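Newbie here. two chains, one complex. Structure please?
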Amino acid sequence: MQAPLIEFRQVSKFYGRGEATIRALDHVDLSISRGEFVSIMGPSGSGKSTCMNIIGGLDVPSAGEYLFQGIPTGGFSRTQLTLLRRHMLGFVFQGFNLLARTSAVENVELPLTYRGMDARERRRLAMAALEQVGLKGREDHTTQELSGGQQQRVAIARAIVTDPAVLLADEPTGNLDTRTSTEIMQLISHLNNERGITVIMVTHEEDIAAYGQRLLRFVDGRLTSDEIRQKEVEIVH
Amino acid sequence: MFIETAKLAWRAISRNILRSFLTVLGVVIGVAAVIAMVTIGNGTTAQVKTELQRLGTNTLFLRPGQWGPGRASTEAKRFDDKDVEAIRDQISGLRAVAPINRGTATAVAGGQNHSTSAIGTTNDYLIAQDWDLVSGREFLPAEERGQAACIIGETLRKELFGSADPVGQTIRLSNVSCPVVGLLAAKGQSGMGDDQDDTVLMPLKLHQRRIGGTTTISSIVLSAHDGVSTSRVQSDVESLLRERRRIGIGREDDFSVNDMSQIASTMTGTTMLLTGLLGAVAAVSLLVGGIGIMNIMLVSVTERTREIGIRLAIGALENQVLTQFLVEAVMLSIFGGVTGILTGLLLAYGVVTFLGVPFVTSPVIIFVAFAFSAAIGMIFGYFPARRAAQLNPIEALRHE
């Protein structure tokens, strides 16, 4: 049997020490397969962001084991975690996190630059990714010249240009109005359906979470509920 | 990949060009100082050398005390007339033996006055120092015995008489009326920048009585005939004077005999000492410049924390971020270095043109200055760059 794409075995994360210790994650077991669209919800401080950071290799568990494609990451160096992010993961943030004063296409090229890809190939892939997110014709606009929704599209293009296995979205619609949010969510769903990219998304809005086929809820660092609700995607549409 | 990094660095620098310029000002000043100094020093050294070559290598200078960098002494016994006579009588192969006493005198004529260098000597001085007369004559024997007379230089003539012929006129030198008997041909500036024509020659006896107030002689210049070995003359003069001054075997000379090349090396030594000293000042300036770069790079890292977070999150390795900031620092300091080199050369060009000495650039020092400024960027940029590379991406992304 093929190993799940992402697996948590009794993962815990503590911050601080002694009396002041905060358990951000408390013995979480979790398994996510290829192609899933997982929404993660929970009040702030519930551990959902910590969970995302650990999946994203930006943080490491204090205890327990995080396996990526069946490989334990416990012994990974900082460099190995970076290479995991570079080759397997794409990030979309609430605040877009594009480079300022930099054109859309250059932002999208950035992760390819760090792979050492040559300029022409980079440009070609970045243009294709921008077209996929519906920003054809705006490649040379700088970050400041784009609306919030367009900036988030650039960020999505940047996340998928490397053809990642997993797209990690941390409140991707948190800074957007309802109509733009819907557009962005439809784009993400589309990438999940058509390209088979596994999507893991943190949100605190029920209707946004409903785009996922699976919903995880965190409370006080514990995974309290894990529902599959495949059909609701159709209902929302 | 390197070109990408260089482009990124250039973009970061040009984003705030004024700040970048102010940051590297320390390096600019340090490098400009070194370059200007060395170039001017090279020019004057070259000038001195040419001049010494022109004067010939058959000239010897005799001074009381030991002469060399940092050991010019006035304590030792000075010479007298008998020394000059003894040298003239007992040393063979000499074409001129001229005593020299220097002093300053105010020359007054026709309502004009000018402070000038007054040299008490004999006619031999004209031979030994290669002076020609454009008008008038040398001192007469009666004048050499102490009768008032003087031969003036071109600058002094201009100051006192304008373009008129001074021969036959009378000037007052420290309250002595001196008929002007000759006019020296113009020589221009010496290698050390002073005006050789701003001078008046007087008979030694008159100078001793009225200006020096002494009966001694402070230095003697010897000129050997062509083809005579100066080192032979040098050692002959040394043993003669040791005898006359009763210096026991094993004791050091209390006088010195130098030829032009030795004097040249003394002067070069002085120049080098000065260069070293100014070099130290420049080094401090470069150090301060380096700290300036470090400071602004730290500010830059803080300002761009979020950007660094983004880069780390999407797959930049620590080394790639480190390289980026290091290249930026090195680029900054190289810009400073290049600006400094150009400024220094420009400055030096202005100064040497003003001094009338040749413009001699040194490729070695330009290369060293360039390499040094790059090294400054490397050293002082490393710490901020490492700080950037080691940022925690989660915290960096949260940074506003």
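Moderator note: Residues 2-50+266-398 of chain B form one domain. Chain B touches chain A at residues 1, 4, 15, 306-307, 309-318, 320, 393-394, 397 (CB under 8 Å). Thread marked as resolved.
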